[in-house]
Amino acid sequence: MQRVLDPAQIEAFAEREIPRVRLPQPTALFSERAQRLRDLAVSSIAGQGQSIGEYLRLMARLADAQQQAFAACALTAPSQGELERARAHGMPLLHAGSLVRDGTWRVVLHQLCCAIRIPDDAAQLGVFPEPVREVCERLLQTPVPALEAQAEAVLALQPDEVDASVAPFISAALQMVWVGLASRLADGSVPPLSVPDVCPVCGSLPVASIVRAERGYRFLHCSLCASEWHRVRVTCTQCQATEGIAYYSIEGGSEAVRAEACPQCHSYLKILYQEKDMAVEPVADDLASLALDLLMSVEGFHRASSNPLLWLAL
User: Fold this and answer.
1) Three-state DSSP class for 207?
2) Plot region of 300 (φ>0 → left; ψ -120 to 50 → alpha; else → beta)
3) Of 164, 233, 248, 310, which has the maximum CB count within 10 A?
4) What is the C-alpha separation between 61 and 91, in angstroms, rounded?
């Protein structure tokens, strides 16, 4: 009698051979995200409505600005001693809650706001509504202590302390810093954590998971540093349950985006399938599938984590 294994069982048996951590490749990360957001904006305007499409276009412009600013971003990496102390204490190497930030992220924030408020291309003037430019102007005028307080609240996932209108811009600036630092780590240098479902690089939550077309392994994608770490499929990323995991999708929607829901803790995280669409991008596709979030809310499930480009209370 031949035993047939499902993909999750195969993946579990092969776990030792799977790359445990995939560090970000920033040379094209943000530009590819921007292009995906633009493509999704077109389909959203055609199918779901104007408002979500326009927001995706705004975030595409923000991602473009991230890519442009990245080349000139001077980062101060942690010392070897700091990295070794993190390893010794079983902590993420670039822990979002304890890594000492210099002013680089505020410089980046200034560049991002200027790119939205006064774009390089004159044809872009007037594309975004006046309230967007007003938010950027307000951020440019915000005192340093207030900016740092907002950054702390964003990194600590404290929605009551976060101004939702500025959070995407602050998140975008912080993303650039952590992506840059994470990309400088050596392959194989990131130790495993005792908590499997937070980023082993920075300790942040995943924005979504993605099943890579190459060999079909599932990785969680960090919402802050864009690192990915392996997680066996059909496993709840909130409570680690494996029984009763269910998958939801929007009828007539993309086959590449589903919600993986757990009946034990009533949470869900979106899962993307490259075999269905090679262009899927965790941050972009999660942001563009808000209709799926509404469906999951109706079904009685809550998000396991938020999208850094759209601040929502969990």
Assistant:
1) strand
2) left
3) 233
4) 34
Domain edges within the chain: 25-183
Task: Tell me how far CA of residue 126 lies from CA of 116, 150, 165, 270, 303, in angstroms.
Answer: 10, 28, 19, 34, 34
Name every residue whose Cβ is closer than 8 Å to that of residue 258 and which is 6 or more positions away in sequence.
247, 248, 249, 270, 271, 273, 292
Distance CA 222, CA 107 (A): 23
pLDDT band, very low/low/confident/very high, at 121 (cuts 50, 70, 90): low
Predicted confidence (pLDDT) at residue 124 exceeds the cutoff of 60: no
* 157, 306 contact by CB (below 8 A): yes
DSSP string, 211-247: E-TTTT-EEEEETTT--EEE--SS--TTT---SS-EE
State phi, psi for 207 to the nearest 5 degrees.
-80, -30
pTM for this entry: 0.90
Nearest alpha carbon to residue 215 among 190, 233, 191, 240 = 233
Contact (CB, 8 A) for 136 and 168: no
Nearest residue to 61 via CA among 117, 134, 135: 117
Task: Pick 25-183's CATH classification: 3.90.1670.10, 3.30.43.10, 2.60.40.420, 3.40.630.40.
Answer: 3.90.1670.10
Q: How far apart are CA 306 and CA 304, in angstroms?
A: 7
Residue 87's identity, in one-letter code, is: R
Percent with pLDDT over 90 in the chain: 70
pLDDT digits (tens, 9 = 90+) for 252-263: 889 999 999 999
Distance in angstroms (rounded) separating the CA atoms of residues 133 and 269 = 32
